Amino acid sequence: MELVISLAILGILVLSFTSIDLFSRFHVISADRRAKVQNEVSNAVEHMAKQISRGVGRVGTAPVIINTPPTGNRIKVRTDQNLNGLIDDNAATCFISYRFIPATYEIVFFPQYSIAGWSNVAANVHVAAQIVACAFTYNAGNNLVTVDLTACWNPLSPLTCGNPDNPSVQIRTNIKMPGVSTR
Q1: Nearest in space to 153 (alpha carbons), one of 29, 27, 23, 36
Q2: Domain boundaries of the chain, sorted by first residue
Q3: Residues 6+ apart with CB under 8 A from 182
Q4: The model's pTM
Q5: Which of 1, 108, 176, 179 has its CB surrounded by the most CB atoms within 10 Å?
Q6: Residue 154: left (phi > 0), alpha (psi -120 to 50), or beta?
Q7: Strands 144-152 and 168-176
Q8: Residues 6 or more apart from 64 whose CB is under 8 A from it?
Q9: What is the pLDDT of residues 5-18, one digit of tens each?
Q10: What is d(CA 155, CA 144) in angstroms, rounded to the nearest whole number?
């Protein structure tokens, strides 16, 4: 009888420790996934802030063009490549662009864009993956570009984004462009 009782107590202890271990592993894995997604989105927002803040413009010359074609959101920003703080009428002032591609869940950076259109002049640079939503807005009165990104651990998963097994992160930031004059 004592042996049966001691085996039952040992079984309860083993089940308790196993339950604690599984619970801890689940939360560590979920927190790790959330941290990786947040790091990816944070790096993308920092890259955008660095590049977009170099925008230049003046009254009548929009520094930002936002386009929402069927294939994803795009933002194009006039930048000052020779760092003189002016809009130059030559190749020194060109556009940079970011494009969200919903089919591949990524954001791509184009360091040089033609002034005439959306055609790419230079090779693109991958900025972020796992992005499920992206929105760009421009407030001309305050010279602010608002970037709103939402990313998910696995966008292709049947689990909804925000689920503990498929965590999501949303980051919104305002990027000031000090080289733009609206007055």
Answers
A1: 36
A2: 39-179
A3: 59, 140, 141, 143
A4: 0.78
A5: 179
A6: beta
A7: antiparallel
A8: 55, 57, 75, 76, 77, 78, 138, 145, 177
A9: 999 999 999 999 99
A10: 29
